[in-house]
């Protein structure tokens, strides 16, 4: 790899575009004091990413911009472009995989600084970060310590540097910076990872109480869900039973009411009928009236009969008196025949004799005669006993009249008796009838009271039925309330109760038991306080668990990467340590050789020291942008011994021939330069940098040493491209190309290139 060219535009004294090409192993830049030679070296530092303004001899970016002159105007920016050969494709990015193609035969790096101090970096024309430039250069062993650019007056820089800085320079020169860089990167990553881990741990700690809260909430939600499930089942049974009960009970009550109403109506009708009948019967019965009438008739008849009996008595007295008179007459013995008697006999006998005269036969006449004889005998006899001749009672007219009257009265009496008997019979008959009707009435009364009691029963049944109806209505209201409440808690599916069929009898106490259970669950549900939206809580819980799991995994990953970073850092440190020791050993060989060559003897070596590490005051993590200033920042130290680590340093040990001086400070300027050059060349030999810029490193050398220096340059140019700023003719004579720098009349640096053949002439 070679440095092909550099182009300065508006950089410091280079007001105009000034290209320099480096096509030969040694290029010398020569010119009078103040012409701008060192500005070229600084341009190289600048474009390679130098951040120290001190190294660029300025206070700020604006000092790097061409300030203008009498004839030339001020530039608005300073720009430097450096071009490397990349035909071997050795350039690469180690860390930053930026979108810049390196697949070209050349790689250009550009840097611009503006009046406001802002910087712009470019790789192959594409704007990049400083980090990318550093990274890219690291891949071709151009380190950030600038060990390959020795500025004016810096010839003994390596001697002045601290052990630690020297180590850093050596590491850089040995190409070990990449390890340091990687270690730093890894440590930075480690710090970041640890910080991340702490953050993750904090986040996890932060969500832990929320998670446990949510877990409890979810458990509550789950419990509420199961309670609601229980409630749904209970509701199904309860409401099903209740609705069936209400329906059947309603039907039963209705039919019972109908039946009772009918019964009441019929009883009322009967009662009314009976009451009417009773009212009718309260008027005195017709029968009794007739009986009373008949009884008065009867008593009239009895009075009449008594009258008649008295009349009869009087008449019998009269008759008895008459008869007594006539019984006294009987005692007179003379008989008297009654005219009627004898006249009837005579008439009878005359008729018989007339009959016998008419008869021819004797017999018949005899019979008639016999009969006449009989009749005459009878008359005679009869006439003998008869008292006819006595005054007969029967002939008493009064007597007869009395007897007749008596007979009449007797007849009348018997007539009255008959009548009396008839009336009595009638009365008895009526009384029997009345009695009968009275017993019917009594029966009716009994029925009436029975009916009344039945009616009462019906009324009380109706009353208790009303009570039952009220109870059922209350049950119904309750049912509807439960249904509404159930709907609110469980949702529409609560009406599923209608789907279940209930066959068995519904026991109220069981229902009551279920209802109490429902109430208990409702209270539990309320207590469970699942007020929040279940789905959102579950969602939040799931999300939080997911987040916690994610954080847990991340923590695991972070732990793993912390572990692997530790391992990596350890490995890198080991490798660095090993290569550093090997590198120092190699350098020592060369150093000794160059030193002896320069001083014509003596010895020099590098030794590795162990020193307390300077620890940063604050353990903060440095951002990538700060990276370049690390070395300077590390000047800030803390002296807390307990927290101290050892770190390596490099010490230079010299032993001048014929001298006892060992302290570097006690060397002369030339000796310092020689030692420094010997070390620089030794290092460059061990790990040749692509190019080496030497700005008047030879300033302090005498003629003899200048020759030795020139020889060494030639030797070194086999390994590295050399750009040498010098006033030394010996040095100039080793170059193939000379660049002459002059300050033009316009007040800007001007370039003039002189080729090999001319160079040697110019050198002389
Ligand atoms: P010497 O041989 O004495 O070391 P040199 O050739 O190395 O000199 P430089 O140090 O490179 O000279 O150049 C310094 C010159 O550059 C000074 O004259 C200074 O005025 C000029 N210069 C520095 N910065 C600027 C700038 N921003 N604009 C214009 N000129 C500048």
Question: What's the layout of helices and strands?
Answer:
Layout: E1 3-9, E2 18-21, E3 26-30, H1 37-47, E4 77-85, E5 106-114, E6 119-123, E7 126-128, H2 130-138, E8 149-150, H3 157-160, H4 163-173, H5 177-281, H6 286-329, H7 339-358, H8 362-385, H9 397-490, H10 508-528, H11 534-599, E9 603-612, H12 630-633, E10 646-655, H13 669-686, E11 691-695, H14 703-716, E12 721-725, H15 729-732, E13 737-743, E14 749-755, H16 756-763
Parallel strand pairs: 3-12, 3-13, 8-11, 11-12
Antiparallel strand pairs: 1-2, 1-4, 4-5, 5-6, 6-7, 9-10, 13-14
Helix pairs in contact: 5-9, 5-10, 5-11, 6-9, 7-8, 11-13, 13-14
Bound molecules: adenosine-5'-triphosphate.
Associated small molecules: adenosine-5'-triphosphate
Mean pLDDT: 84
* Span of the ends, CA to CA: 32 Å
CATH top level class name of one domain? Alpha Beta
Give Rg in angstroms: 85 Å
Strand order of the biggest β-sheet? 2-1-4-5-6-7
Q: Count all strands and give the number.
A: 14
Please give the CATH architecture of one domain.
3-Layer(aba) Sandwich
Share of residues in strands: 5-15%
CATH superfamily of one domain: P-loop containing nucleotide triphosphate hydrolases
Coarse shape: rod-shaped
Estimate the helix proportion, in percent: 55-70%
- Flag low-confidence runs: 617-639
Run of helices and strands: EEEHEEEEHEHHHHHHHHHEHEHEHEHEEH
- How many DSSP helices? 16
The CATH topology of one domain is given as: Rossmann fold
Q: Which sheet architecture does the biggest sheet show?
A: 6 strands, antiparallel
Structural class by secondary-structure content: alpha/beta
